Amino acid sequence: HRAWPGLIEAYRTRMPVAADWKVVTLLEGGTPLVAAPYLSELTGCEVYLKVEGLNPTGSFKDRGMTMAVTTAVNNGKRAVLCASTGNTSASAAAYATRAGITCAVLIPEGKIAMGKLAQAVMHGAKIIQVQGNFDDCLELARKVTADFPEIELVNSVNPARIEGQKTAAFEIVDVLGRAPDVHALPVGNAGNITAYWTGYREYHADGISDSLPRMLGVQAAGAAPLVNGAPVKNPETIATAIRIGSPASWNQAVAAKDESNGQFRAATDEKLLEAYRLVAGQEGVFVEPASAASVAGLLAAHADGWIASGSTVVCTVTGNGLKDPDTALSGMPEVNAIPVDPVAVADALGVG
Ligand code: F0G
C-alpha cells in the first residue's frame, strides 16, 4: 500500500514538469469514481460519478492549479492572478499559499457562492470585486498579466492548467479499464472539456484505451453560448459557477464535441436544481448546482435517445455541495425547536 502522491507524481511521465522542479501539491486528484445505482436504474445505463468535490479545495480546479502554480513558481513568478466565479479563486489562493507567493482574484460582484469566498478569504488572497461578470473579469485579468508579465495568469487559458486537468480522464480509464461510452460534464469557460478530451485522446493514442467517449457538454440555459453558437452578453443562472457568456476555450470545446461525435446541450435552472436534489437525495453525493449539469444532461440525452440504455456513462460532478449552502437551504421552511423531551421527538417524527 502506498499513499496517493498527488497527480503530478502519479502521472509524472505525462506531465510537462522538469525533473528538478519543486512540485506544489496538496495531494489533489485520485478522486473516487462512484457508482450511481439510482441513475443507473433510471436510465438502464451503467452510470458513474467522478466526484471532484473531494479534491483539497473542493473542486476539479485543484488538478489544474497544482500544475499552474508549480510551473509559475519554477519559472520564478512571485504572484498569480485569476478571474473566477469562485472555485478557481479558492484553488489559486490555496496553492499560492502553499508555494509562498501572492494570489489576487477578480470576482464578479455579488455572484459567487459563500463557501468559495470564505476559502479565498481564509487563504489570504487579495480579493477584488469587479462591477461586471466573469467574462469582464477574465478580460481584465488578461490585460493586467499582459502588462505585468511577472504575474502569472492561472485561468484555464494557461496551458499548464489543461495538462493537470487531463489526469481526470486518465483516472477514469485506469479504473474502468476502458473509456466510457459517454462522458458528461458541465461547461462554463470550457477548459475542463478541453482537458478531458486531451486526456482521453492521449490514452487512446498510446493504446491504453481502445475507444474514445462521446463528449456531452452541458451548459445552463441562461448561459449557453456553445449551444446557441454565439456569445451571451448577459449570462444568468442560479449555477453561478458556470455563469459565463464567452468561453475562452470555445474552439477547443467545439473540437472536442465534433471529434468525439458529441453534443452540447442546455439545462434550465429548474432542471439543474432537479438534478442537484436528485444526486444529493438519491445517490448520497452532495454537489454544487453547476455540477449537477452533467446529470441533468444525462437525463435529457437519455430521454431523447441520444444515450441508449446499456451505455457506460461517466458524469463529472465538479464541485462540493458545501460551497453553496445558500442554494441548499433556500426554500427550507422555518422550524421551531422542540423541548428536551423524547415525547416531543416522537411527536416531531410523527410516531407519537
Ligand atoms: N463546474 C464548476 C463547479 C466550476 O466552478 C466550473 C468553472 C465549471 C464547472 C466549468 O468548467 O470553466 O472549465 O468549463 N468555474 C470557473 C471558476 C469558471 O472561476 O471557478 P470550465
From TrEMBL:
Residue span(s) of domain Tryptophan synthase beta chain-like PALP: 24-319
Essential cofactor(s): pyridoxal 5'-phosphate
Catalysis: reaction(s): O-phospho-L-homoserine + H2O = L-threonine + phosphate
Keyword vocabulary terms for this entry: Amino-acid biosynthesis, Lyase, Pyridoxal phosphate, Threonine biosynthesis
EC number: 4.2.3.1
PANTHER family tied to this protein: L-THREONINE DEHYDRATASE CATABOLIC TDCB (PTHR48078:SF6), THREONINE DEHYDRATASE, MITOCHONDRIAL-RELATED (PTHR48078)
Protein task: Catalyzes the gamma-elimination of phosphate from L-phosphohomoserine and the beta-addition of water to produce L-threonine.
Official protein name in the record: Threonine synthase
Species, as recorded: Gordonia pseudamarae
